Amino acid sequence: GFQFRCSESASDPVVAPNNVMNVSMPIRPCSAFGAGGLQYSQSVQDHIMGRHGDSGLPGVSQYFGNFSQIQNINAITFFFGSQVQQGNRVVFQYTFPQPLAPVATMHIGTDATGQHTSTNRLVTNSDCKTVVTSYPIGG
Questions:
Q1: In this structure, is the dihedral angle defined by the CA atoms of residues 101, 92, 75 and 134, taken in order, positive or negative?
Q2: pLDDT above 70: residue 29
Q3: Are 112 and 138 contacting, i.e. CB atoms less than 8 angstroms apart?
C-alpha cells in the first residue's frame, strides 16, 4: 500500500512515527506489462479455438469471431480489465461497454448456458504474458 505522512504543522519537517497512516490500494499484478506481449502457445491457441471458438460444444462458452479477433478481445481485457492474482496465475476480466443498449449491443460470444455475453475472461501465468486460456463468461 501507499504510505502518507502528515506532520503536526507545515513548518515542522520532522515526521513523528505515530503520524504515519497506511492506506491499502488495489494492486494490479500486471500493470507494468503491455497487452502486446501476450504469448499463445500452439496448444493454447488450439484449446481456445477448439473449445471456445464456435465449436458448438454444449455447455461451453463460445466466441464470435476468429483467433485474431479473440486476440484483440484479450488485449482489451488485459489492458482495461480487472486483475486478480490466483496462485501462479493472473485472471483478467472485462465487460465491454454497451453504449447503444438496448437499441444495439455488442456481444463477444455466448456463455456456457448459451446466453449472449459481453464479458471476457483471460488467464495468464504469473509472468503476465503466457496465456493459459480465455473464454466468454456470463456477466
A1: negative
A2: no
A3: yes
Instruction: Give the C-alpha separation, 127 to 108, whole Å.
Output: 26
Q: What is the rounded CA–CA span in Å between residue 121 and residue 63?
A: 11
Distances (CA, A) of 115 to 108, 109, 129: 11, 8, 30
Alpha-carbon gap, residue 102 to 39, rounded angstroms: 36
Per residue in 63-120, pLDDT tens?
999 999 999 999 999 999 999 999 999 999 999 988 766 666 688 999 999 999 999 9
Using alpha carbons, select from 130, 108, 129, 126 the residue that is nearest to residue 117.
Answer: 108
Q: Can you give the pTM of this predicted structure?
A: 0.75
- Which of the 8 DSSP states describes residue 62? E
Surface-to-core class of residue 136, CB atoms within 10 Å of its CB (0-12 exposed, 13-18 middle, 19+ buried) = buried
In whole angstroms, what is the distance from residue 123 CA to residue 74 CA?
Answer: 9
CB atoms within 10 A of CB 52: 20
Instruction: Please give the Cα distance from 133 to 5 (Å, whole number).
Output: 43
Strands 89-95 and 82-86 turn out to be: antiparallel
